[in-house]
């Protein structure tokens, strides 16, 4: 009888072990997740695909982009599950990929560092084309209304590839400022491996920033642009943050006193202290504060102290025990902000937590969050909780990264993934013919490995459905900061 009781207890313990492990940090292969998070970008490529393309269910697409304006605008990335190239989020994606390499490249296996640089260059090569003419910036390729009325593979695309252009003195401070930031950050990422390319990027960055600063205003305020970019990537939060963000990256890349003066003197007029609790493709404030804080924490630039104060304040809002905490968490522990595609907040904030933890550690400093003191280890724990949630430690036990683990979203809102590959079905699938596949209850035929979907809402609920695009659509700017986070944990997996 006693042996039966012991056996029953052992059996119960074995049954509970997966739940206990899930609650207290199960094992994750962060290096595998890192590999997949970078591979995802190959599935988003537009243009002529190289022979070493690994996401081999994709084919060439958008090969005529730019012909209507006599400019080669091939290349770049589709932002999400559609076939439009929106430069505003693409440039932000590029900045964050480059920042991931700058901060965490040394944590990456050499092969993945190379792959990350390839992913950055796929974008910067395209962005260089968009600013190739003086006093002009091409900000988008593809009519989104027509595109969203079709469900077709990028390889079959027959909707209008309208090119949206801003000429000086019309304003485009947001897109141009973010593009300047992308070039400056990428120049640092390439500095050791390709100094000539790095120099080209940096030289172009200064020119594009001048365009942004001289022609102040939001690109979506241009009447010939508005209907093409709104409501998709309208500038909702103003253009001022991108000017400071671009200048801050140029300061970091050049150490130039002119850019130092810019971010000092324009801090108030350009609203550096406004709405500092956001970071994403449209709002750079929290990222700006963290980026500039490095100079203060390195002990040299106390004239920038107000940026560090904002960064400290932002970090304290993420600490549940802090009196200034006001970030919401789902019952399962996911950072939650109202609006669609919630994981874009979780991945960008996680990235900032890890970057700031490194800055604090190197300067031997801690945060004072009201009644509690917060060190780098606490910031990293919060970041790790977000990473682990996304990889499967959540109430559904689902990885929100496609292709990672055995249980992940099968019916993501993504045209190329949901339609038969052009390799398997070479015949054209026309605009409305794709609806059959969109409405299918079957899993997507092509696995977009590494894609992080929009994810669950405030209640941790997730329905695996193409229709629910806010939850099931991946985007490049969800993935980009996650590359840096995974790089950190691939080298430091045992932080608890």
UniProtKB/TrEMBL annotation:
Record's protein name: Endoglucanase
Homology family: Belongs to the glycosyl hydrolase 9 (cellulase E) family.
Top-level taxon: Eukaryota
Keyword flag Transmembrane: no
Species in which this protein is naturally found: Anisodus tanguticus
Keyword Signal: yes
Record key words, sorted: Carbohydrate metabolism, Cellulose degradation, Glycosidase, Hydrolase, Polysaccharide degradation, Signal
Family matches, as SUPFAM superfamilies: Six-hairpin glycosidases
Reaction it catalyzes: Endohydrolysis of (1->4)-beta-D-glucosidic linkages in cellulose, lichenin and cereal beta-D-glucans
InterPro entries: 6-hairpin_glycosidase_sf, 6hp_glycosidase-like_sf, Glyco_hydro_9, Glyco_hydro_9_Asp/Glu_AS, Glyco_hydro_9_His_AS
Lineage: Eukaryota, Viridiplantae, Streptophyta, Embryophyta, Tracheophyta
First-level EC class: hydrolase
């Amino acid at each position: 009888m006693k042996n039966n009781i012991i056996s029953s207890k052992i059996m119960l313990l074995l049954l509970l072990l997966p739940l206990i492990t899930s609650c207290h940090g199960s094992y994750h292969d962060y290096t595998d997740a890192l590999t997949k998070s970078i591979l995802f970008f190959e599935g988003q490529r537009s243009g002529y695909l190289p022979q070493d393309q690994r996401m081999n269910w994709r084919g060439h697409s958008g090969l005529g982009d730019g012909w209507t304006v006599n400019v080669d605008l091939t290349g770049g990335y589709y932002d999400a599950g559609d076939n439009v190239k929106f430069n505003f989020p693409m440039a932000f994606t590029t900045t964050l990929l480059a920042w991931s390499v700058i901060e965490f490249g040394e944590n990456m296996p050499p092969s993945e560092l190379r792959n990350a640089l390839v992913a950055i260059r796929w974008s910067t090569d395209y962005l260089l084309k968009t600013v190739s003419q003086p006093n002009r910036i091409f900000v988008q390729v593809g009519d989104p209304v027509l595109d969203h009325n079709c469900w077709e593979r990028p390889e079959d695309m027959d909707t209008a590839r309208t090119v949206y252009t801003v000429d000086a003195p019309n304003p485009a401070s947001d897109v141009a400022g973010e593009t300047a930031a992308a070039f400056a950050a990428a120049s640092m990422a390439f500095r050791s491996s390709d100094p000539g390319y790095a120099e080209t990027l940096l030289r172009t960055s200064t020119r594009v920033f001048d365009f942004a600063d001289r022609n102040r205003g939001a690109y979506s305020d241009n009447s010939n642009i508005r209907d093409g970019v709104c409501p998709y990537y309208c500038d909702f939060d103003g253009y001022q943050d991108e000017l400071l963000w671009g200048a801050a990256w140029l300061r970091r890349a050049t150490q130039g006193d002119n850019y130092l003066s810019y971010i000092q003197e324009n801090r108030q007029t350009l609203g550096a202290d406004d709405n500092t609790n956001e970071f994403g493709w449209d709002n750079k404030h929290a990222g700006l504060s963290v980026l500039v804080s490095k100079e203060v924490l390195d002990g040299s630039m106390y004239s920038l102290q107000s940026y560090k104060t904002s960064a400290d304040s932002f970090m304290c809002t993420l600490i549940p025990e802090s009196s200034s905490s006001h970030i919401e968490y789902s019952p399962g522990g996911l950072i939650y902000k109202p609006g669609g595609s919630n994981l874009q907040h979780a991945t960008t904030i996680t990235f900032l937590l890890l970057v700031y933890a490194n800055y604090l550690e190197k300067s031997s400093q801690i945060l004072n969050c009201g009644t509690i003191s917060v060190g780098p280890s606490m910031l990293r724990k919060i970041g790790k909780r977000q990473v682990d949630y996304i990889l499967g430690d959540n109430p559904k036990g689902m990885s929100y990264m496609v292709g990672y683990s055995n249980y992940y979203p099968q019916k993501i809102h993504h045209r190329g993934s949901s339609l038969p590959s052009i390799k398997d079905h070479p015949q054209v699938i026309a605009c409305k013919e794709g609806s059959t596949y969109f409405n299918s209850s079957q899993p997507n035929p092509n696995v977009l490995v590494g894609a992080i979907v929009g994810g669950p809402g405030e209640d941790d609920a997730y329905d695996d459905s193409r229709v629910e695009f806010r939850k099931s659509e991946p985007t490049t700017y969800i993935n980009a900061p996650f590359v840096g986070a995974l790089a950190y944990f691939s080298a430091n997996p045992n932080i608890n």
